[in-house]
Q: What sequence folds into this?
């Protein structure tokens, strides 16, 4: 005979038949007509199952209550390369035209200040005995419309943030090009230069063998013709020091309004190199020239160990020996960072190898540099919106 418990009318109340707190609607005893003892066993199993579910949810959500420290993505081993006893390494870049972010390519956005900085930082941590120099062939700023009156607002903002970004992570040396001169000439005036180099340390890295103040204007300073970087390593002879001399030239271009004129690159280098060679163990020339002109210059000169060329050249060209010079070409917009490694053979001869490191998503972002990149992007977009709103 089927027994109907008195709890059925209130199906969500505790089942008085089973003497449990399980809602009557979920109690099997009244539905199946089983004994209260079996019903209690079912309830115990139900509670055990509920407890297991609760524990699983609790463990799954513990990271919400107690967040674990974020893990910093490591620079992949292929990007760092091996410790192959290089006596020094150069990371070369340039032609970014004030773009601190990636190239924005839809398929594989590459480049960016935040990735270049992280790669250099990781290299120095991984290979503390290998000196690293960061050099730029130039064209670091955007000269579109900067000499107009008024200039383009978004370009001004872009260059301002580029100046901040490059100053936060300055290069060892930058070749002055006509694009950069059109943007930076106001910082190179005799009145502004001292304070400007304090405010923006990247300006101290600029050099040029063939940009000189105009003869009829004494308003601008003379930039360094070359820089000497002394690096140390237990791999060196001569007391563990090596002097790397760096100079640079740019193809002549219109320079009205900048306070400077451009001299012939070959003539300027021939004047600079004897003095530079006397002071340096290694001579590096940063050349913003068409590739055929750069090769002709390298073949003509005898005191140049390395020439790094930039001028919207084809991408990822391999190292080429021209005369006595190891010649490499920058990757346009630095989607891939150039790396040059120097070695000394057993007989004391110096040799070089080069490669390119793609600055793609496999390279993590340096957090502080990434913030500068994001701030720059937001400010540029805001400037462009205001330009659209102001348009007639």
A:
């Amino acid at each position: 005979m089927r027994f109907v418990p008195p709890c059925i009318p209130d199906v969500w109340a505790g089942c008085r038949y089973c003497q449990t707190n399980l809602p009557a609607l979920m109690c099997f005893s009244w539905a199946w007509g089983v004994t209260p003892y079996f019903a209690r066993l079912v309830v115990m199993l139900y509670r055990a199952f509920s407890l297991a579910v609760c524990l699983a949810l609790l463990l799954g959500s513990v990271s919400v209550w107690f967040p674990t420290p974020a893990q910093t993505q490591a620079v992949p081993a292929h990007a760092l390369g091996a410790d192959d006893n290089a006596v020094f390494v150069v990371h070369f870049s340039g032609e970014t035209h004030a773009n601190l972010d990636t190239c924005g390519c839809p398929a594989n956005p590459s480049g960016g200040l935040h990735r270049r900085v992280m790669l250099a930082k990781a290299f120095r941590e991984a290979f503390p005995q290998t000196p690293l120099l960061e050099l730029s062939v130039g064209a670091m700023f955007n000269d579109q419309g900067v000499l107009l009156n008024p200039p383009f607002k978004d370009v001004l903002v872009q260059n301002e943030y580029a100046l901040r970004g490059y100053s936060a992570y300055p290069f060892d040396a930058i070749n002055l090009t006509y694009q950069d001169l059109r943007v930076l000439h106001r910082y190179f005036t005799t009145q502004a230069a001292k304070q400007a180099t304090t405010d923006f340390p990247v300006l101290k890295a600029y050099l040029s063998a063939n940009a000189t103040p105009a003869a009829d204007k004494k308003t601008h300073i003379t930039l360094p013709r070359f820089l000497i970087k002394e690096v140390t390593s237990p791999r060196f002879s001569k007391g563990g020091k090596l002097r790397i001399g760096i100079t640079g030239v740019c193809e002549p271009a219109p320079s009205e309004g900048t306070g400077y004129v451009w001299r012939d690159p070959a003539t300027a280098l021939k004047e600079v190199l004897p003095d530079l060679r006397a002071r340096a163990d290694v001579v590096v020339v940063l050349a913003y020239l068409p590739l055929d002109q750069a090769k002709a210059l390298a073949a003509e000169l005898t005191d140049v160990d390395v020439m790094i060329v930039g001028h919207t050249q084809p991408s990822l060209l391999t190292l080429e020996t021209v005369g006595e010079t190891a010649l490499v070409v920058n990757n346009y917009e630095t989607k891939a960072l150039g790396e040059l490694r120097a070695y000394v053979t057993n007989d004391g001869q110096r040799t070089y190898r080069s490669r390119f490191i793609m600055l793609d998503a496999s390279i993590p972002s340096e957090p502080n540099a990434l913030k500068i990149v994001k701030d720059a992007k937001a400010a540029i977009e805001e400037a462009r919106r205001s330009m659209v709103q102001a348009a007639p």
Notes: The two ends are 92 Å apart (CA to CA). DSSP finds ten helices and 14 strands in the chain. Confidence is low (pLDDT under 50) at residues 1-34, 61-71.
